[in-house]
Specification:
single chain, mainly alpha, 61% helix
Length: 152
């Protein structure tokens, strides 16, 4: 298999950095309960934004590229379905626990969809223990966090 050639701005995704994205996602998500409990709306928005950026980087890695620094043409690096999935996570009925939880759950669904594909493509194990620990913490601290999240 020949390696694709990229325009100057594009670089292939780094397998080690790609593996770290999954850990990063779960660690970022684990911050959300504290922010919601303290009614830190601006920090909750930043947290969900960080989660979205991590998921975006996962999508790009599955497409074979690292996130281009300071790009102005992100749409061309994602499929229509990838863009639509991420754009749906932007919907926020109002700033508050319900909205932040809704966005986080949508991002968890996307992350769970991409995690096995990334692990397979880049040859690493998904951080299942960290995922379970994070989800258990969310269920324990956030009464509105769903008991189960399915991806299919």
């Amino acid at each position: 298999m020949t390696k694709p050639t990229w325009p100057d701005a594009l670089q292939p995704a780094d397998p080690a950095e790609t593996a770290l994205l999954l850990d990063q996602f779960w660690r970022q998500l684990a911050r959300l309960p504290d922010l919601i409990e303290r009614d830190e709306q601006l920090l909750a928005a930043a947290c969900t934004g960080d989660l979205r950026q991590t998921v975006l980087r996962m999508m790009l890695a599955l497409n074979g590229i690292a996130c281009p620094p300071q790009t102005r043409h992100l749409n061309s690096y994602l499929s229509a379905s990838q863009r639509a999935a991420l754009e749906k996570t932007l919907a926020l009925p109002f700033a508050g626990a319900e909205g932040w939880i809704g966005q986080a759950v949508a991002l968890v669904v996307i992350c769970r969809w991409y995690a096995p594909q990334l692990a397979n493509a880049y040859g690493f194990a998904a951080p299942d223990a960290l995922e379970q620990e994070t989800l258990a913490g969310l269920q324990a601290r956030l009464p509105d966090w769903p008991l189960a999240i399915t991806t299919g």
